[in-house]
Write a structure and sequence with these properties.
Layout: H1 4-20, H2 22-33, H3 51-61, H4 68-79, H5 82-91, H6 106-125, H7 143-160, E1 208-209, E2 218-223, E3 226-232, E4 236-237, E5 244-245, E6 249-253, E7 262-266, E8 272-276, E9 279-282, H8 283-296, H9 300-310, H10 320-338, E10 343-346, H11 351-362, E11 380-382, E12 413-422, E13 427-428, H12 448-454, H13 478-486, H14 490-501, E14 538-539, E15 542-547, E16 553-559, H15 565-575, E17 585-588, H16 591-600, H17 604-607, E18 612-614, H18 617-620, H19 628-633, E19 647-651, E20 657-661, H20 667-675, H21 679-682, H22 687-722, H23 736-739
Parallel strand pairs: 2-9, 12-17, 17-18
Antiparallel strand pairs: 1-4, 2-3, 4-5, 5-6, 6-7, 7-10, 8-9, 11-12, 12-15, 13-14, 15-16, 19-20
Helix pairs in contact: 1-2, 3-7, 4-6, 5-6, 6-7, 8-10, 9-10, 10-11, 10-22, 11-22, 15-16
Length: 740
């Protein structure tokens, strides 16, 4: 041991050196801040006893009817509770004045109770010998004896495994550290889940493992969040049809197609998925990545950094590309499972091509498969032919409508769909009416096709001259090109980015603005003019969604240049092609515009027999009061009885009738508030990646909404089953004697 005087002088000398050199101070602070924020506790080895000793401990401690599962449960219950064992055995070895030796401590009793809840009555009974067991152990009088017997068995078993800080003579050997389970980790082998050939044109032959030992790849496998190194990956092959079977896909030759191409089937039942050249992960890892991206609006880069900082090691590094591969592979299988198919694509596609092909196959033009035939109390109301709004109920909103707008329907139920958009979208080719991916997402403005077509020509509109070297404009349009370059420098983009991130920040020298969107929703909406050049890529204007009032997403699409009524009508027509599929009401923030456009282009003849367009409650107050069309036909809650299915009556706790809207017309606004969290991520994606990302996120969102509704319904039914029916009436019950 060094003397304390020497240590004090050493520390003082180091401090003096640091104070003389600011560079060393900063270096010291940097090294301190880069240290891990947590400490890994010292671990003890797993009990290393002979199997004969372990078997003897089992047979001498527990009854002959104990199963292997019960033994392992007890074993791991002891090894995972080393702190509790320290507390228990310490009370058996008193050392201080006033301490008493307690053989069965409260600590071990707590473990007995937890173990009993885990095992259940049948498995707990197998712990006793025949001479110990009696039915009275499960009665209230025998509970204390039962706990004492099991506690003694756990105490004896722990001593047999040397899971005690004291030796057999009672000498203290040191605190029992957490037990390491590294020595008992299984040896993983990644192999196909099919054990026979499942090709329809072939017989169910057994699969052969044809790889030589030296050719079997050894990979890194992440199972949960545990990293396993040097895991062999085996591939099976059918000797007859030559179909190969891997853990996450099957590869076969399509003999029915010209050229007989090789196809790949992505298995929904895969336990492990390949996400890198020598990196495999299990489905728990995949589900964690997708769930984190959904719940936290996390990008692939953010989740990769989180995983590396939390679970990563120096030998394993998860990159952004790994997480994006994980997201695509997991979401593709989840959506395919909803459609009850396995995705079949051409073999040897890269991840960009897989993403595009997956959306083409599973995207269904933006229709969410999970919402198919969905119906619940929030989005479906019982049809009311007559308004039930009493005269003394306070009105929801003013109306000057009459009975000429009463819907002529003969239905048992009424449904509504809500439509709205959020301004966000990826970039695409700048050429007119072209929405293809950019050939170069960093600085390019054209797709592959138009880059080859216009690669040597001036990109100013209506100019066919050759461009000058090193520019995208001809000699006559260099001024326009220089202006474009001036405002696309890094400094200019930083200023524009600040303006976009702080739209309400105005200085005294700046003109006063009306706001980010001064246009009313009932103002005419036309497409913006075409740009004067093709120097920069175009960007999709918005993402348009159709939701049920309960929050279930029905469909979505992208609008390129504007949210025009024509685009909205075309979108509605593609989602609801038949009269039977159309809802009774469609709520749109600019419903009056859509209605006027539908009447003008005669598409109203298609909708008028089944559907009414109404404005959502929030934007209705922003529409002009003198707008006759909006007030007469698009009122979301008329109180004069002309739309009895839009207004319902409920009673307050004191019995007062209150009118409220039958449907939630703000559901799309609520969805957009959540969807907008992905705007910073999605706007940097290619259109193909954007399509799949948004479609997958809306699919998961719909599944979670339906799951929450199911849980809510179960709780409601359970409450109704336990509570008397008259509890909700708010009335005092009359006793039988009083009624007599």
């Amino acid at each position: 041991m060094l003397p304390s005087v020497f240590l004090s002088s050493l520390v003082w000398s180091i401090l003096q050196i640091l104070l003389r050199s600011p560079t060393l101070i900063w270096l010291f602070l940097w090294l301190y801040m880069t240290l891990p924020v947590y400490a890994i506790p010292t671990q003890s080895q797993f009990p290393n006893i002979l199997f004969t000793d372990f078997s003897r401990a089992i047979t001498t401690t527990f009854g002959s009817g104990i199963t292997l599962a019960t033994v392992l449960t007890i074993l791991f219950s002891l090894t995972d509770n080393s702190d509790l064992l320290n507390l228990h055995f310490r009370q058996q070895h008193p050392t201080e004045i006033g301490e008493n030796k307690i053989q069965i401590s409260g600590w071990i009793i707590a473990l007995v109770n937890a173990l009993g809840d885990k095992l259940g009555k049948k498995q707990t009974s197998s712990l006793f010998f025949d001479y110990e067991y009696s039915q009275s152990l499960w009665e209230e009088d025998g509970k204390k004896r039962r706990i004492k017997l099991i506690a003694g068995k756990l105490d004896s078993f722990a001593n047999s495994l040397s899971l005690s800080p004291y030796d057999q003579d009672g000498n203290y050997c040191g605190k029992l550290s957490p037990i390491s389970h590294d020595k008992i980790q299984p040896a993983l082998v990644i192999c196909p889940t099919s054990f026979v050939c499942v090709t329809q044109s072939c017989s169910p032959r057994s699969l052969l493992q044809t790889s030589q030992f030296r050719d079997i790849p050894l990979v890194t496998c992440v199972k949960g969040h545990a990293v396993h190194k040097n895991v062999p990956v085996l591939t099976g092959r059918c000797h007859s049809c030559q179909t190969s079977y891997s853990a996450d896909h099957e590869r076969f030759q399509d003999l029915s197609t010209t050229g007989k191409p090789w196809k790949r089937v992505y298995l929904n039942s895969a336990k492990y998925i390949k996400i890198g050249q020598a990196l495999w992960v299990d489905r728990l890892f995949c589900a964690s990545a997708v769930t984190a991206m959904y719940n936290f609006h996390a990008s692939a880069s953010a989740y990769a950094e989180y995983w590396n900082n939390t679970f990563g090691t120096g030998e394993v590094f998860i990159s952004r590309a790994h997480i994006w591969q994980t997201f695509v592979q997991e979401s593709m299988r989840t959506i395919a499972e909803e459609s009850q198919i396995n995705v079949e694509l051409n073999d040897a596609l890269n991840i960009k091509e897989v993403t595009a092909e997956a959306f083409s196959l599973l995207g269904e033009d933006g229709i969410i498969r999970a919402a198919d035939k969905h119906s619940c109390e929030e989005c479906t109301q019982i049809y009311r032919p007559v308004a039930e709004t009493p005269a003394h109920v306070p009105p929801i909103s003013d109306t000057d409508s009459n009975d000429s707008n009463v819907m002529d329907v003969d239905k048992k139920f009424v449904k509504m769909a809500v439509l709205d958009g959020i301004v966000m979208g990826p970039t695409h080719c700048a050429y007119d009416e072209c929405q293809n991916d950019l050939s170069n997402s960093r600085g390019g403005s054209l797709c592959d096709q138009h880059h080859l077509q216009l690669g040597s020509y001036c990109l100013v509109r209506d100019c066919s001259n050759r461009r000058a070297e090193g520019t995208c404009a001809c000699d006559n349009h260099q001024r326009e090109w220089n202006t474009y370059k001036k405002y696309t420098t890094q400094n200019a983009r930083s200023g524009i980015r600040r303006m976009l991130q702080h739209p309400g920040e105005n200085y005294e020298w700046q003109p006063k603005a009306k706001g980010p969107n001064p246009q009313r929703h009932d103002d005419p909406n036309t497409d913006p003019p075409l740009p004067s050049n093709l120097f920069s890529p175009s960007r999709f204007y918005c993402v348009e969604t159709i939701c049920a009032p309960c929050g279930v997403v029905i469909a979505w699409t992208k609008f390129d240049r504007s949210e025009s009524p024509t685009n909205i009508l075309n979108f509605l027509g593609s989602v609801y092609p038949t009269e039977e599929s159309r809802p009774d009401y469609i709520c749109i923030d600019k419903a009056c515009q859509v209605l006027a456009t539908a009447v003008a282009n005669q598409s109203w003849d298609i909708w008028k027999r089944t559907t009414r367009f109404i404005v959502d409650s929030y934007h209705y107050t922003n529409h002009r009061k003198q707008h006759f069309l909006c007030r007469k036909y698009c009122n979301p809650a008329p109180t004069n009885g002309e739309a009895p299915n839009l207004v319902i009556v409920e009673h307050s706790d004191n019995g007062r009738p209150i009118a409220r809207r039958a449907f939630n017309t703000q559901v799309c606004e609520q969805l957009n508030a959540w969807l907008g969290g992905f705007e910073s991520i999605a706007k940097r994606m290619t259109p193909s990646n954007f399509n799949w990302f948004i479609h997958a996120m809306l699919f998961y969102h719909t599944k979670y909404v339906i799951k929450r509704q199911h849980i809510k319904k179960q709780k409601k039914e359970a409450k109704e089953a336990t509570d008397p029916e008259d509890d909700d009436l708010g009335l005092d019950e009359e006793s039988e004697e009083e009624s007599d």
